[in-house]
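Example record used in the benchmark description.
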Amino acid sequence: MGFTSSLGTIRDYQDVSYIAVPLLITEGVGAISGVIPTELAGFDIPRRLGAGWLKSNGISDKAGSSTVLRSTTGVSIILVSLGKELSNLESWRLAGASVMRIAGTEAVNFLLPLDLLNAPGACAQALVEGASLSTYDYKTLDKECSLFLVPLDGSVPNPETLSEIETAIEDALTATDLVNWAKRLIDTPPRDASPRKLAKAYAKRLEQEDNVTVEVWDEDKVKAERLGGLIGVGRGSNEPVRLVYATYRPKAGENVPHVVLVGKGITFDSGGLSIKPADSMMTMKADMSGSAIVMATLALCAELGLNIRVTAIAPMSENMTGGSATRPGDVLTIRNGATVEVLNTDAEGRLVLADGLTLATETDASLIIDIATLTGAQRVALGDQIAAFYSTSEQVAADLEKASQATGELIWRMPLHSPYNASLESEIADIKNIGAGGGGSITAALFLQRFVGEFPWVHLDIASTSRAEGGRGYLSKGATAFGVRTLVHYLSEIASKGSLPTA
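Model output (C-alpha cells):
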C-alpha cells in the first residue's frame, strides 16, 4: 500500500500514534498558533517556547528540527520547526520528512494552523511531498505509512479551503508516486534494468495513461533510423540498444505548446575502453537517470491533465568493454549526418543525446530540454546539492530557475561560452567528443548545442544531484529522480499560460 495521506480531524487520536505541532522560530523563540489546542492527548501545549528549552531539545530555526514529547501509553507529540517563515514551501517539505522519519510506520496527525497560512493548499502539498519522498525505500516497496492533515481555524474550516487542501494532497501523492517510481527504476540493479527491460518498464507504465502513445525502437529500428551515436556506444555490450519515444497530446488537433524532453539512458557505464576506476563504477547503474526522469515527467503531465504537448525521448544503451566496443579514435556518424571523433569512450552520454536531440529537432517543438548525468565537472563546480543548467533563452532560464526555487531542486545557470568551442575541433571529423583543458561541463553543453539547431533549448547536467549518498532532508540514500518536480512545475506554468515565451 505504501505511503498514504488524507484529511483528518483533531479528534482522531485513536487511529494515530503521533500528533505533529508546527513551530515558527523568531529570534530564537518558538511560537505555536493560537488555533492549536492548549491540551493535546494529555500534554499541555504552550504558546511560546524559550530559546533555552528549544536548544536543549534540539530545535532551531532550521526547518525540520524537532523533538518528541513521548507518551508510554497513548499518543506522543512531535514539535517540529518550520524555521523563520511559514511561506517557505521547502520548510514544509522538510517538516513532513522529519515527522515521518520519527513516526516510521506509525500514523501521524499533522496540525495545520490556517490562521497563519496565506496559501494552505501549497503548504499542504509541500508537506505531503516531503513526507512521501522521505518514506521511499527500495527494499520495502509496500511499507505502510500514513499522514493525516488536520486543518485548524478556530472554528469550522472553510469548505473551499478544505477542498483546496484535499486537491493539494491528491496532487502531491500523484507527483511523488511517479518520482518514487523513477527512483525505484534508477536504484534497480543494472542486470535487471538493461535497455530491453527498462524500455518495457517505461512502456508498461506510460501505456496506463490517457492520451499517451509509446514506441519502443529495437536495435534494427535504431540502425534503420541512423542513430550512429547510440549504436556506437552500445557496440561493446551484449545487451542490444533501445530507444523509447513517448508522446502526450492532451487534445488532438489543439494548438498548444510542445516541449520535447530528451533523457540520457546509459543503463550501466563502465567507461568503455576508457575504463573507469572500480570505485567510480559502483553507482553507474544510475547513469540512466535522465531517461527515467523524462518518462516520469511525461506520465505526471498526463496524470495531471496539463494542457501542453510533451514528447519524451530516451536513447538507452550499456557502455561496456566488449571486443566490438568503440575505440578511442573511431568516428561515429550521428543521425543528422554530423561526424564525431570519439577520443574518450567515457564521454558517451553526449553521443546518445546527440541522436536524441536530432530527433527532437525533427518535431515542431516549442522548446527542447535534455537532462543527463553528464559530467564529473558539474560536481566539481557545484557540489552534490545543485545541478548545472544551460539555456539559449533568457526567459526560459528565468522561468526554470523560478520553478526550481519553488520545488527545492536547486539549479544554477552556467555559461555557453562560445570560445570553448575551439577545443572541440577535430582534424578528421566535424567535432570531437571531449574538449581540452577545464570547463568540462561547459564543453559538454557546447557539444550538445551543435545538435539543437535554432530551437530554444535547455541542458540540465545532474551528475551530482542524481543520487544522495546518505539520507538528507526528504531524500533517502540512493536515487533522487532530481528534476521531475521542477520540470512538471515549469510545464504546468506553460500550460496555464497557453504559450511559451522564449526570448
